[in-house]
Automatic annotation (TrEMBL):
CDD domains: ADA. It comes from the Bacteria. Its cofactor is Zn(2+). The active site is at residue 199. This is Adenine deaminase. It comes from Marinomonas aquimarina. One of its GO terms (biological process) is adenine catabolic process. The keyword Metal-binding applies. Zn(2+) binds at residues 16, 18, 196, 277. Its EC number is 3.5.4.2.
Length: 326
């Protein structure tokens, strides 16, 4: 009880969050109606009933459908503000969120519309709720590298608002090396880099994220545990893993939370963190993830404190800002 209470109340940082994955069905229907676009489901209940996934792709199909009702700057603002207000209740004080520009550009929504809405909400929530933030532009790995390069060009007028670059979407069949050149340019621009790796993909993809892309962080990283040399490399480089327990459960990356690999990661000395990934689809925000780890995995007090500290340590905040949280 005291442990749960501590977990809920302690200040937290979230480092792995797709803003399009915070689109709650109620808000999705409201914005669809406002924009006079049709959804494939005729009620919130029917939509929620479809949230049963056997793998990452099952989820992504619904994720891209859901985001397709986002058309105007106000839509992106409202989506982002709803997430920030929600995690403020969970005592999240710092967020590093992804957005997927190509998921909107392909539907004719300009980069400017997207980023003005998202950034506007982040700025207002920092002022009104005291939540600090970083904004990470993520490339869709099921598309080709040329498309990522085009996206990077569109982002260039807004680099002052973009704090880093990521790589997400369908992992298997789309290894990091496919994006070697575009990430080289991102790094030359001084942008920190992270990539989803080892969620469904093999350890080899995590090696590539490190050796070919030169990531500053790894999103998920579960399957890295299959390769002891890889574990050693991640440990020696001090790379943070942004782990997503409820996401893993919903996408069948793990069978249960009782023996979730996050405990092994901590025991191996890896800098694991807890994150919600796509909370509207996976059944929970930040505190729901901690709640599940406490009640189902038996997370200890020591583990809880280390996980919470790891998130600030692994954030892209500057040194002094980090110290204030730790
Ligand atoms: N994995 C890959 N791509 C994604 C995810 C994820 O968990 N969420 C949103 N895009
Ligand atoms: Zn993710």
């Amino acid at each position: 009880e005291a442990l749960l209470d501590l977990a809920m109340r302690m200040p937290k940082a979230e480092l792995h969050l797709h803003i399009e994955g915070t689109f709650e069905p109620e808000q999705m229907f409201a914005i669809a109606q406002r924009n006079q676009v049709a959804l494939k489901y005729d009620s919130v209940e029917a939509l929620k009933a479809a949230y049963q996934f056997e793998n990452l792709q099952d989820f992504l199909d619904l994720y891209y459908q859901g985001m397709s009702v986002l058309l105007k700057e106000q839509d992106f603002y409202d989506l982002t503000m709803a997430y920030l207000k929600r995690v403020h209740e969970d005592n999240v004080v710092h967020v590093e969120i992804f957005f997927d520009p190509q998921g909107h550009l392909s539907r004719g929504v300009s980069f400017e519309t997207q980023i003005k809405g998202i950034y506007g909400a982040l700025r207002d929530a920092q002022r009104d709720l005291g939540i600090t933030f970083k904004l990470i532009m993520s490339f869709l790995r099921h598309l080709d590298e040329a498309s990522a390069f085009e996206t990077l060009e569109l982002a260039k007028p807004y680099l002052a608002w973009i704090d880093g670059v990521g790589l997400d979407s369908s992992e298997v069949g789309h290894p990091p090396i496919k994006f070697e050149n575009v990430f080289r340019e991102c790094k030359a621009l001084g942008l920190p880099v992270t990539a989803h790796a080892g969620e469904e993909g093999p350890p080899e993809y995590v090696w590539q994220a490190i050796d070919v892309i030169g990531v500053d962080r790894i999103d998920h990283g579960n399957r890295a545990l299959e390769d002891i040399d890889l574990v050693t490399t991640i440990k020696h480089k001090g790379l943070t893993l942004t782990v997503c327990p409820l996401s893993n459960l919903k996408l069948c990356v793990v069978d249960s939370l009782e023996d979730h690999p996050i405990r092994s990661m901590l025991r191996l000395g890896l800098n694991a963190t807890v994150n919600s990934d796509d909370p509207a689809y996976f059944g929970g925000y930040m505190n729901d993830n901690f709640h599940a780890l406490v009640t189902q995995m038996g997370l200890t007090r020591d583990e809880l404190l280390i996980l919470a500290c790891n998130a600030f340590e692994g954030s892209w905040l500057d040194h002094d800002s980090k110290q204030q949280h730790i």
